[in-house]
């Protein structure tokens, strides 16, 4: 049986160090950058949760039953899940001049469901990281400093 690209052992919650080793140094650096951005700009507390056998463990930013985003460690990378409601999707799609062509393509190719547009983003470049930060700001305004 092939090794899973995600951390799927439900019996043991991974530590931050184990996640960093699993993702590798390059992805780990982007992971840390995104986590710092979220924790510096939002009042969401990270929680580690098991998302099921298909997706494995995640670090989810959630408050009062609302999720900002979820980060899924993967072998040599990670994915970010951002669910945008209809109005937020429309706003994001109107940002063609600010978002990369890759992010616009992800937005356009993801179906708008009744509960939102489920964007699965695997950051590959610095531009992707900037796009994710912009999408988070569409979903929720950063806290005032």
What is the secondary structure topology, with strand pairs?
Blueprint: H1 16-23, H2 25-41, E1 45-50, E2 57-63, E3 66-74, E4 77-84, H3 86-93, H4 101-109, E5 112-113, E6 116-121, H5 126-139
Antiparallel strand pairs: 1-2, 2-3, 3-4, 4-6, 5-6
Please give a structural write-up.
It is a single chain. With 145 residues, the chain is α+β, with helices and mostly antiparallel strands. It has a single domain (16-139), classed as Aspartate Aminotransferase, domain 1 (Alpha-Beta Complex). It has helices at 16-23, 25-41, 86-93, 101-109, 126-139; strands spanning 45-50, 57-63, 66-74, 77-84, 112-113, 116-121. The chain has a six-stranded antiparallel β-sheet with strand order 1-2-3-4-6-5. A hairpin with a 2-residue loop joins strand 3 and strand 4. Helix 1 packs across helix 2 and helix 2 packs parallel to helix 5. The longest helix has 17 residues, at 25-41.
What is the molecular shape?
globular
Estimated structural class: alpha+beta
Tell me the count of domains. Answer: 1
Would you identify the regions where 5 or more consecutive residues have pLDDT less than 50?
Answer: none
Major sheet summary line: 6 strands, antiparallel
Number of helices: 5
Radius of gyration: 15 Å
The CATH C-level name is: Alpha Beta
Give the assembly state of these chains: single chain
Order of helices and strands: HHEEEEHHEEH
Q: Which second-level CATH architecture applies?
A: Alpha-Beta Complex
Question: Order of strands side by side in the largest beta sheet?
Answer: 1-2-3-4-6-5
Taken as a percent bin, the fraction of beta residues is: 25-35%
Q: Could you tell me the mean pLDDT?
A: 94
Portion of residues in helices? 25-40%
| Beta-strand segment tally | 6
Tell me the distance between the termini.
50 Å
**CATH fold group:** Aspartate Aminotransferase, domain 1
């Amino acid at each position: 049986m092939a090794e899973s690209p995600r951390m799927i052992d439900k019996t043991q919650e991974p530590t931050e160090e184990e996640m960093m080793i699993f993702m590798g140094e390059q992805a780990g650096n982007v992971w840390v950058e995104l986590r710092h951005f979220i924790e510096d700009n939002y009042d969401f507390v990270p929680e580690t949760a098991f998302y099921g056998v298909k997706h494995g463990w995640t670090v989810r930013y959630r408050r009062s039953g609302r999720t900002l985003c979820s980060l899924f460690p993967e072998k040599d990378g990670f994915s970010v899940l951002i669910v945008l409601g209809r109005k937020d999707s429309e706003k994001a799609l109107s940002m063609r001049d600010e978002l990369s062509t890759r992010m616009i393509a992800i937005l356009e190719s993801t179906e708008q469901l009744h509960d939102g547009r489920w964007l699965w983003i695997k950051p590959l470049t610095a531009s992707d990281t900037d796009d994710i930060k912009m999408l988070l700001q569409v979903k929720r305004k950063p806290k005032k400093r």
